[in-house]
Structure formats: structure tokens, C-alpha cells
Amino acid sequence: MSRVKIIAGNWKLNRGTATEAAALISELAGALPTESSAEIVVCPPFTALLSLRDALSAAPQAIRLGAQDVFWKNSGAYTGQISAPMLVDLGVRYVIIGHSERRGRFGVPEPDFTPDILKQFGETDATVNLKAKAALGAGLIPILCIGETLAEREAGDTDSVVRTQVEGALSGISAEAVAGLIFAYEPVWAIGTGKVCEPDEADRVCGVVRETVGSLYGAATADAVRVQYGGSMKPDNAADLLARPNIDGGLVGGASLKAADFAAIVSAAQVRQESTQG
Q: Which amino acids are annotated catalytic?
């Protein structure tokens, strides 16, 4: 089965004002090919979603809008939360759920983040599951993040950590819904560190994700689900990573803030997509 490549840019806490976001999108529209066989998504801070909805409607490319998180309740006494219907109203189509930074798992430790402060970043497999269900119920496409820390990798626990996170994220979700969502394997030790998981190993772990889905839902669902790589993907390693059979795209952090770099990654995905279709 040929799966459509998907490149998503996670802006994190950057370019969040309307002016900054519009400037980056303008640069990106000028750098990207007019047409792409790969799906292109940008995930800015919440504060930029409305302005980007309007800007993207005028862009020559089909750039889709994503958000960086969602809450599992549609309304209520939940100060500071953003619901799935709110995101849909802003033109959002995709939503990142369970990013390692939301889980309090940082590739580069923050020296002033004490254990008490880290409670602010309290995402768990259970809340990822609740958010995934809420997103799917509203018609959003979840990008579910999973991955191990350096300590877990060095202990030989990579596969078990990944399997546990996948199983927890999918609890109670139908095979049909799972086939349409996206996983992003993000080795925590490679996020923001400049380190990258070797392509063969990244592909192997993305294969573990797919195998886990298969064990839960069968081969057809496993073959349909898309798995991105999300650890320091850059123009100089994107083509090699995207050439691997289990890697269906990238969740791009720092490189998504540079129009030329992000465009180069999209181009690498497009070349790979067209080669598999040829």
C-alpha cells in the first residue's frame, strides 16, 4: 500500500503573534512548490490560528492547519483549555497530541524545571487517549506522539515504551478511526539536541509502531496508518529518512521555522512519494 507522505511543522512556542505567523507563512508559500504530492501541515501556537486560517486560504499551495494540543471536554470549568470544536471553528484539521514536551520529557533538560514545576507538563497515556477520542469525535486528525528518553533507550526499553504508549493512546478506538490517524515517533533524546536517530533504527522503531497497531487491529489497519519521524529532521537527513518503508513523513520542529529548510523537507517527501507511485 502506498501511503501519502505528510510533513507537519510544529512551531512550538514560536512565531505566535499574527504578524510573525503571517510573515513565516508568506516566506513558506514563496519557497514551497506550487503543487505537492505530500500533505503539508503547519501547527502554530493557538494565538496564530485565526490569522493563519485566512492566510492559508489565499496561499497557492494546499497547506493545512494544525494545532499543538486539545482538551477532551467541549465546555465547562476548565480554565485555559482549548476544545476540539473551538479548533474546528478556527479551520484546524490536524492536532498534535502527547508531544514529549507536553509529557514533561525533554531532550535537553531545563535546569530550572524542578520536579514540582514539571507537574505542569503532566500528559499521560490516559490523557492522550481521552484527547484522541475527543479529536476524532470532532472530525480532527490526531498526530499521536510516542517515543523513549535516552535513559529508556540505554536500558533497552525502547520497544516496550513505544508499544505501551501506542496501546494506551488507542484504547477504545475503532479500527476505522485508527486507520486514519497519524503516529509520530519522536525519540526524546533527539528533540532539540541536534542528534538524529539513524535512519535504519528510526525505520525499525516506526515498524514497531506499525506492528503494535497490527497486533491490535490487524494487518489492513497497520498498513493504512501513517507513522512520521519526529526527531531533528532536517534538509540534510530528510531524504534518507523518508526513503525508509515505515517512515511516512516528518513532524518537524526547528527546521519548520525556516522557510527554505521546511520547503526542502517537503520537496524530499514529494520526490519519495512520486517514486513510490511511479
A: 99, 186
